[in-house]
Design goal:
Blueprint (H helix, E strand, L loop, with lengths): L12 E6 L5 E6 L7 H12 L13 E8 L6 E7 L7 H8 L7 E2 L7 H5 L15 E4 L12 E6 L7 E4 L13 E7 L4 H17 L4 E7 L4 H6 L7 E6 L4 E4 L5 H8 L5
Length: 267
């Protein structure tokens, strides 16, 4: 887990939505009312470029955890439930929600019919692929609707159209097999930023043969992030992984400069 990750609140509701292929989007909501599984379906549609939200995954591919205060004992109690198709992921769920070796309760309902889920394969084949996505969706408390402090651009292994999800939280740090981690610092959402993103996406799609995560950070909204990464001018592109860390400061119109930063020839 990322050591820079903010501490979880003492009391919260956590919801998680998996795909049959093993991708995961989840939310930690202290208010216990701002986000639900159908919100995650809509976000999953955007992430994977689906024709419509995959509501059929609910409830079969979901898990829910609730940390609440017992009024009699004043002790924090935990209720954690997962449906059979995602119970194998409880170690990952415990890591995300910081619940140690908690044993999740198996939830079984007639609505959870894997054979029915399988009938959607031809319409949504992307859900049966593993894109190695573990994404935290912002709660209503951390971000207003339609207003994002940062843009997490998630690219599929095969490239293609950019998939994006607004999120303040960092994704879980990828392992070495998950390709590149890049940060792009920009000054606002404007035409220059749009040109930079288009150029960068084009280069990455055409030159990288492995998945990557690109996070776009607006220095006006997140000056603390710019200071932490010693960013004094925009645009600045930083290759966080694989090492060594490298950066480009200034216009990103030179493809050769971007390729040198990526060190594609070293792969």
């Amino acid at each position: 887990m990322n050591s820079d990750r903010p501490a979880l609140p003492q009391l919260f509701k956590g919801i998680a939505l998996f795909t049959p292929g093993g991708d995961l989007i989840y939310c930690i909501d202290p208010s216990k009312k701002s986000r639900w599984h159908l919100h995650l379906c809509a976000a999953l549609q955007e992430m994977l470029g689906l024709s419509e939200p995959p509501h059929f995954l609910v409830p079969c591919y979901t898990a829910t955890i609730d940390l609440w205060l017992d009024p009699q004992t004043q002790q924090v109690r935990i209720s954690a439930e997962a449906y059979p198709p995602v119970l194998r992921h409880q170690t990952l769920l415990n890591a995300l929600f910081e619940t140690g070796d908690l044993v999740w309760h198996v939830r079984v309902e007639e609505l959870c019919n894997p054979m029915v889920i399988a009938t959607y394969y031809n319409q949504f084949p992307e859900l049966w692929e593993n894109h190695e996505l573990i994404v935290q969706f912002p709660s209503g408390d951390s971000q207003n609707e339609g207003e994002a402090g940062s843009l997490l651009a998630l690219r599929r292994r095969s490239g293609g159209v950019a998939r994006s999800l607004y999120a303040d939280a960092e994704p879980i740090p990828p392992s070495e097999t998950q390709g590149y981690v890049l940060r792009l610092f920009v000054s606002g959402n404007n035409a220059a930023t749009e040109r930079t993103l288009n150029t960068l996406h084009q280069v990455l799609d055409q030159t990288l043969g492995q998945p990557y995560t690109l996070k776009v950070i607006d220095v006006f909204k997140h000056p603390d992030r710019a200071e932490a990464d010693q960013v004094s001018a925009t645009p600045t592109l930083i290759k966080v992984w694989p090492h060594p860390v490298r950066r480009i400061v200034g216009e990103l119109g030179d493809v050769d400069t971007i390729l040198r930063l990526l060190a594609v020839s070293e792969l």
